[in-house]
Amino acid sequence: MSNRVALPSLLLRLLVLPFLHIPVTGQAKTFESVPDLQKAMYHIIDGYPCVRLLNVSGEIGCSNPGRGKVVAPIVKFKNADGQLSQPSTLLVAGDEMQNLFLRISNDQDFAQNVAGVLVESKDVSQSSGFSPVGKFPQAEFAPYKKHNFEWNPVGSGIMGNRYNFPVFLLSKNSTLSLQEFITKNGRRNKAEPIAVAEFDLVMQTTTVGTHDSESCLRQRSCLPLGGYSEQ
């Protein structure tokens, strides 16, 4: 048995879906209906997704690797040298996000076991600063040749990369909930459930094979950022 975290495709939310663990001794809990069972299995976790973006030359951003769900146990990313023995969903502090993505870019053995990433929310006053764009955003469009000035000192440039796994920034309350699940995972024994993330959100265009903005527009499969317009 396991706990799962699922993400519905329309609400852009993260759900924690725990499979029930009923002890051998003691009175087992009964459920009167399927909705009651679902309430016991699912825990709603709010998150803000990284999405797949298209331009004329290709793709950037994040998405499930295919059209199916991604399911993997949740583990805490503690340091840049740790190893993953199986596909895992990594819970990472905001200050460690850049180190994690650098590790993913440079270590293929590690990257192939990253099934998803959940980024903890943190107060701005407590953060050392982070920006997913580069230190010189859009340097290629600068009216001069020298691009070594750091307009954005905390920039990492990871936004311009393509990641074949889902990434979510958690809300403050969701961060606390996931940290609690991680703590329980650390104390569990083999007979107890483990928290597992289930990502049910593809975050890419609606038609297979549209890997750039031109093909996406031609097939009318692009989805607008910021919501849907009726106009």
From TrEMBL:
A Gene Ontology biological process noted in the UniProt record is: Notch signaling pathway
For this UniProt record, the keywords arranged alphabetically read as follows: Glycoprotein, Membrane, Notch signaling pathway, Signal, Transmembrane, Transmembrane helix
- The main place the protein resides is membrane
Q: Give start and end of each Nicastrin small lobe domain.
A: 49-205
Any one GO CC term of the record: plasma membrane
| Compartments reported by the entry | Membrane
Domain of life, source organism: Eukaryota
Membrane topology reported for the UniProt record: Single-pass type I membrane protein
Signal peptide interval: 1-26
InterPro entries, from UniProt? Ncstrn_small, Nicastrin
Q: Which Pfam families match?
A: Ncstrn_small
Which family is it part of? Belongs to the nicastrin family.
According to UniProt, the name of this protein is: Nicastrin
**Gene coding for it:** At3g52640
